[in-house]
Amino acid sequence: MTSTADHVSTIDQLRARDFPAQRTADGWVESGPGFHVADLRVSEDFWDADLTRVEEVLEEFEAELSVLAQVLTLRWGAPDVLDLTDSLERSAMGEPVPPPLDTLCGYVPELRVWRVDGRWVGLGVGQGDRELPFQLLVAIGEEGTI
């Protein structure tokens, strides 16, 4: 298991990284023009898990998100909350949704977002489907893309 300090280090590394000209993925990071998205932690999958186990893991991930958000709030101030429901609805209707929200809206309901040095930093917990793993993730983008 990774620590909050490890997560902050990863976030700082991604904030300093240039955005590529085309979408790429290198293991734990997906990047593209104007964004990076990285899993900070991924749970086991839940194909045969009972609902109690799913709820326990979700609570763990939400607690980890809360601690990390508190650390970032001490650095950068209170975050905004970005509800991704609108992006999901637009995507479902075939309307354009900018990256990385086009991908994130399918499994992350909301992001806590800070605006720092011309970029935004978003944290969230998502799950693509009931039997898939939970993901604690960070998304970083150019200011003005959300």
Number of helices: 4
Q: Provide mean pLDDT, rounded.
A: 93
* Span between termini: 31 Å
Biggest beta sheet summary: 7 strands, antiparallel
Uncertain segments are none
How many structural domains can be distinguished in the coordinates? 1
Helix content: 25-40%
Strand content: 25-35%
Quick one: overall form? globular
- N-to-C SSE string, H for helix and E for strand: HEEEHEHHEEE
Q: Taking Cα atoms only, what radius of gyration do you get, to the nearest Å?
A: 15 Å
User: Quick one: how many beta strands?
Assistant: 7
| Helix and strand composition category | alpha+beta
- List the strand order in the largest sheet: 1-2-3-7-6-5-4
Assembly form of the protein: single chain
Notes on the structure:
Helix content is 35%, strand content 29%. The chain has four helices and seven strands; from the N terminus they run αβββαβααβββ. The longest helix is centred in the middle third of the chain and has 26 residues, at 51-76. The protein has helices at 4-16, 51-76, 85-92, 101-104, and strands at 24-25, 29-32, 35-42, 80-83, 110-116, 119-127, 134-142. The model has no long low-confidence stretch (mean pLDDT 93). The chain is an alpha+beta fold. Strands 1-2-3-7-6-5-4 form a seven-stranded antiparallel beta sheet. It has one domain. A hairpin with a 2-residue loop joins strand 2 and strand 3.
